[in-house]
Predict the structure.
Amino acid sequence: MTETKETTAATTPRTDISVKEAWTGPARLQLFAHALAPMAGLPVREVVAAGHIRVDLILAPFAPGFDYLAETAKARA
């Protein structure tokens, strides 16, 4: 089995966005416990409003923002 590593932080600008539908309406908020982001502990009293948007979008080609492995290679050299 091969090990997979995240090697870059990506910046991908969105282009050609086409809004198909947009509306406001009822919503429900469900938060789950997570060790690194304790969002479920937030005191949510009421969901005031919700906006729903359905879009088609095309992502531009991938452009790495930061190469983490290059920094590791410099530290080893």
Observations:
- The chain has one helix and four strands.
- The CA atoms of residues 35 and 41 lie 11 Å apart.
- The two ends are 28 Å apart (CA to CA).
- The longest strand covers residues 14-24.
